[in-house]
Amino acid sequence: MDAKKLMERAIKFHGHSCPGLAIGVMAAKYVLEQGNNFSADEEMVAVVENDNCSVDALQVLLGTTFGKGNLIFLDYGKNSYSIFNRTSEKALRLSVIPGKTGDRNMSKDERTAKILGSDPAGIFNIKEIEFNPPDYAKIRDSDICEDCGEAVMSTRIKEKEGKKLCISCHGRSLGD
Ligand SMILES: [Zn+2]
Ligand SMILES: [Zn+2]
Fold it and tell me: Going from the N-terminus, what domains does the chain have, and what CATH number goes with each?
């Protein structure tokens, strides 16, 4: 699979070329080369430990997207990606090896080119992990906020002074 072609597709979605996007492209390339197919539904689920540019490459190339609910964000500040395939019941985790994606003396373009020209095993620690994926995305009932009147997912309703409220209305005093 050609890293440059995958990068072009990722740029169309993400908007620009950058080293972060290249990291996500290389992670997605590795996952696709292991016999995993683009996820039209929730066949795959990605658990990502950062919300930087790299995640956009996973969304567009793997089909693990925020909207479908098969992209789970853990705010750990790490360039690590766990991919679970519900069909094969296999899972793997890729984690960027410190110092392997260029240094501060290199320009952004130089770093991007270096990453795209790397072997995945040269930039990621890659290991098979236990298959224990997050649950499927749930469809929940909605409720109506008694202050603003907007529909809210029932699990996000909060009570205050006997009223069922959305989170934004709950955050300010009633009657404002
Ligand atoms: Zn970017
Ligand atoms: Zn409200």
Answer: 3-129 (3.30.1330.130), 140-176 (3.30.60)
